[in-house]
Design brief:
Elements lengths: L7 E4 L3 E4 L2 E8 L2 E7 L2 E7 L5 E5 L7 E5 L5 E6 L11 E3 H4 L1 E3 L4 E3 L4 E2 L49 H23 L5 H15 L4 H12 L7 H10 L8 H8 L22 H14 L2 H11 L13 H19 L4 H12 L4 H7 L5 H10 L1
Antiparallel strand pairs: 1-2, 2-3, 3-4, 4-5, 5-6, 7-8, 9-10, 10-11, 11-12
Helix pairs in contact: 2-3, 2-4, 3-4, 3-10, 4-7, 7-8, 7-9, 8-9, 9-10
């Protein structure tokens, strides 16, 4: 970044170089706590929003002080602050051209608004304040921060700021999900199964080297549960849905009635009672086997489809049971690396369509290989 006289180079979030001078930043988790420039160490003490307030020297002596108005303008300053990471921990170019850098866009603290509209359209259930795409932190800057430039930190149960990039990925997957669902309805994609496969391939392309990110980001849209233990997430949500809500993406798709159905799935994997949200059912067992283990996924599947008192008898079926086993198998393969995220879309096509071996096997659980060969030759 250049301000006309000085060009500053940034190496991730840990280094910056200006006029040949290297500054290294130190973190505790996601919080920036210290910096070192030319061998000089300074600590950065912040307020509840993460703003740099009291920089100190290596032995704790305060070297400067900054106080801020509610929307980020400087209320008081003394001494020389050793960093431009200031209001809410974001980089300040106020002395250069009056703006703060919030990654996706620029923020003008003098106007209390972003300089451009959010490129991610807010969801309906995020509240009316979020519908103003220029608004900063839904007009609540005392409580929230927005390090990505896309959302308030506390939305959807996420902590700030580590998950913001994944939230952006989930937003992209959700947008793709709605597009594919519309294409199924207008006939430009042949089935819900094909839409699920294409969505899986798209999700994998966003995080090609992070399988856990891929599984979780897909789950944010398909099942509404994210985190390292999907089975615990379900239990917590059932016990206290207000405290443990499902993701905004899932709730929004329910609100708009835009869930994928079950066309293209083999009959043995279809819900005979008309629920038909097989993509959700399948992916829940993918994420459970991946995060909780194959054994937990199998046990949960057996419990849910037999004696689970939280579901009606009509919600229990052999079809859902075997679809859950198939989802568990993909989750296990992703966890062991036998299947990569990039291969998962084709894996879904190969295992859930009516001509797949899996469909034949679960329709004929006592069948022999020779019987399968005879069946496949008659197709």
């Amino acid at each position: 970044m250049s301000n006309g006289s000085t060009t500053t180079y940034f190496v991730g979030s840990h280094y910056e170089v200006a006029n040949g001078v290297v500054t290294k930043y130190y973190y505790a988790g996601a919080q920036r706590i210290a910096l070192r420039t030319n061998g000089t160490l300074n600590y950065l003490l912040g307020d509840h929003l993460g703003s740099t307030s009291l920089p100190t020297d290596a032995v704790g002596n305060v070297i400067s002080e900054m106080r801020y108005k509610a929307w980020g303008e400087t209320r008081y300053a003394s001494g020389t602050t050793p960093t431009k990471y200031q209001y809410t921990g974001q980089y300040s170019y106020v002395s250069d051209f009056g703006l703060h850098f919030y990654n996706a866009r620029w923020y003008d603290s003098s106007l209390s608004r972003f300089a451009s509209a959010d490129s991610i359209v807010p969801l309906a259930n995020q509240g009316s304040q979020a519908w103003d795409r220029y608004a900063y932190t839904s007009n609540n800057p005392i409580r929230y921060v927005d390090p990505s430039g896309h959302r308030n930190c506390e939305e959807d149960g996420y902590n700030c700021p580590g998950n913001d990039i994944q939230y952006i990925r989930q937003s992209q997957i959700y947008k793709k999900y709605l597009e594919l669902q519309k294409r199924v309805k207008n006939g430009t994609i042949k089935s819900d199964l094909e839409a699920l496969a294409q969505l899986t391939e798209y999700g994998a392309s966003l995080t090609p080297s992070c399988t856990s990110c891929f599984v979780n980001n897909m789950a944010a849209v398909l099942t509404g549960y994210v985190g390292s233990s999907p089975s615990d997430a379900v239990s917590n949500h059932r016990d206290n849905p207000d405290k443990y809500p499902q993701t905004a993406f899932f709730e929004e798709s329910n609100f708009k009635n835009t869930r994928l159905s079950q066309t293209g799935f083999a009959p043995i994997f279809k819900d005979n009672y008309g629920q038909g949200d097989q993509s959700r059912h399948y992916w829940f067992y993918v994420q459970t086997a991946y995060f909780d283990s194959l054994d937990v996924s199998w046990a949960g599947n057996v419990y849910h489809e037999t004696i689970d008192p939280s579901s009606d008898a009509k919600e229990k079926s052999y079809q859902d049971f075997v679809l859950g086993l198939e989802g568990s198998e993909l989750g296990f393969h992703l966890a062991t690396g036998f299947v990569t995220p990039q291969e998962a879309g084709q894996y879904i096509r190969d295992n859930l369509s009516k001509d797949s071996f899996s469909a034949w096997y679960w329709s004929h659980p006592l069948g022999t290989v020779n019987q399968y060969i005879e069946w496949s030759e008659q197709k």
